[in-house]
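Most newcomers find our protein records easier to grasp once they have seen one. The structure tokens are whole numbers drawn from a learned vocabulary of backbone shapes. The record below serves as our worked example for the rest of this section.
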Amino acid sequence: MVSRRTYAGRAVGVVLKHAAGAGQRLNDHFKGTYLQGAAADAGWCSYFRPLPAALPATSKRVIAALSANYLAHRFDLLGSGWVRVRHGMVCRGVEGWRYEGGPAVEPDREGRWLQGRINRSNLAESQRIWKMVDASYVPIDWQRDFKSGYRWAEDTWYLDIRYGHKPGVDIKVPWELARMQHLPRLALAYALAKNEVQGLASANRYVSEFRNQVLDFIATNPPRFGVNWRSAMEVAIRAANWAVAADLFRASGAKFDEAFEDILARSLYEHGLHIECNLEWDPEVRGNHYLANVAGLLFIAAYLPRTPKTDAWLAFAVRELVNEADFQFAPDGTHREASTAYHCLTAEMMAYATGLVLALPGHKRQALAEYDHRQMPSRPPLVPAPVQLYPSGRGGQLTPFPGWYFQRLERMGEFVAHITKPDGRVPQVGDNDSGRFLRFDASFSELKVGQARARYDNLAGYDELPDDASYWDEDHLDHRGLLAAMGALFARADLLSAAGEGCLEAEIMRGLLGGAGTVPSWRQRNTAARGAEAVSVGAEDQLHAPRKELDAFGGARCYEIVTGPAGGDLRDGLACYGYPDFGLYVLRSKRLYLAIRCGGFGLVGNGGHAHHDQLSIELSLDGRNLIVDPGTYLYSALPHRRNEYRHEHAHFAPHPQRHQAQGTGPGLFQMRDRAVARCLYFGPRGFAGCHRAFGPAVYRVIEIEPSAIRITDRVERGDRLRHLTPAWGWRCGWRESPRQSPGYGIVARDADSITA
């Protein structure tokens, strides 16, 4: 838990920040926030190589279809459905909450339409940038929650932006769009068009669209004004995607005009300054937000030419990348926020950030020894000593990463491989906001619009496209692209195999590493290491110890899933993967997949992304999902729905009738760990565990037999357990569970349609 001293320090920090913020607010309103003059001399660094022409046909088709939507400014984010985002659009609303977001605009070449939108001190520069946009381009409304219709204002100073203050309004929607993670896909479409792949627009169309969208954003989102500067994490992810997209365009032969290059470089520099001044660091409680800050600074500093400031950013980011690998990830490679989705997000940041550092050219690597620490006056401070270098095992090359770092990074990928279900999806433990760092070739399936509307509740009233039009549906639980990137980074054939054939991320990572080569695999060097593939607790006969203890309790609940002998023994080829630091245990064989949640809430016991899900399970038999976690759905847009999905009744887990789970804090991202969950046995015969989230001890024993799975639940002190009624045929879970949310903002009408 967070100490009193830390709370006191935070209070003082808040007072000082508000005092400094008042002065900064006035200065920004009267003097403007765009930097005057170019931020750096010309000379971008390049890292990615051109993609091979022989990409899988599926990838080509998906990239062509998605890029066509992006050219039309149509996006499907956080359950919105594919909608064209523009000024004056009418939005469907969220569960009955709908807002009017202002009239349409008539953009003119001189930028007069920006008057009254952009604050006076930034208007002239905003108009100058807008003049560089093609006359036929229609601007995107970057300030709008295009689900509820609510709109923030371009002239509101970033720390004055409010959110969570109106029902149905979700600040994550404009944030997700402004991450601009679709731009690298436009670059991939450009590469395919250059190779004359069918079904694409002209190659130059993608170049001009990239240029126009970036200029549109910069002109209508002056630094430190509007909703898209509120979170440093969002600023960092946007900057990384801009830099990577521009690099991929250049790698395939695209040329940008000098004026655009100058504006883009200056804006990336402004992004870096903003991240530096708004680091989401805390001495005790920090997670994916701060890691994104670090990764964003790294990408900015790696791409921009060397200056005293960018040298300091680079050294700071490399140092903090190593520090956060130790602070945020346990020795077994699992992330400490108790969420499988956030583990995948942070592991992705770590993988691509590591690949970028390994690919740094000599003059950039020299900056790690020559930087001026005074250029980075931040918390945590940048130390003055040169960044220490270590042997990497790659032909004698030195890297800033010690051996344990690569071992931990490799284990991050192994965790994803071990928990991935037979259908390619990860189980949902804790929160899932569908976050990614760089989106390349995600998992999509092609539906008709009518099919999509029949599948998802959140598409009620959707009429953007006709029923017989194609609808590209993203599977937000499929993280096999991360496995492909990790497999390419470490030359791990097993991870590449788990990712499946033709994952584009493997080629992306190989292109990033280029001549740097792969990292020698710790697992392959140490073949005796078993890692998580072991019985984590006790010997086999200990499974019966908790059963004897349970005999003294009343109110037992028993569930038995019988499969029949036709498919063979459930235990044939059984592997046990125990991750006690995370609190997840997986049993898997040719026929069986069983994941059991039993462990801490993460974030030093504060559980910002945890759920009341102790001893809950996800179960698949013969590739058929029988029990799945309902997911997350929404955060601040509808607090009661947020609490519904993280409530104990939402999970297939034992809980007493007369007690509620303890520890939920007053905020939407607080859940103090009072469960004291313990794994009593985990091994080839099953699992046994207990916790005290409700006060009295609750026990669950799971026994794996040749053709059956037996689950026994009990609670102490004579209380009775609420009966869970698994609807095995419906494949979702139990009567009291909310409908499954397989991604943020998404609700399935019938779980059978998305888990088959």
Residues 4-31 form the longest helix (28 residues). Confidence is low (pLDDT under 50) at residues 727-734. The domain at 540-755 is CATH 2.70.98 (Beta-galactosidase; Chain A, domain 5). DSSP finds 21 helices and 16 strands in the chain.
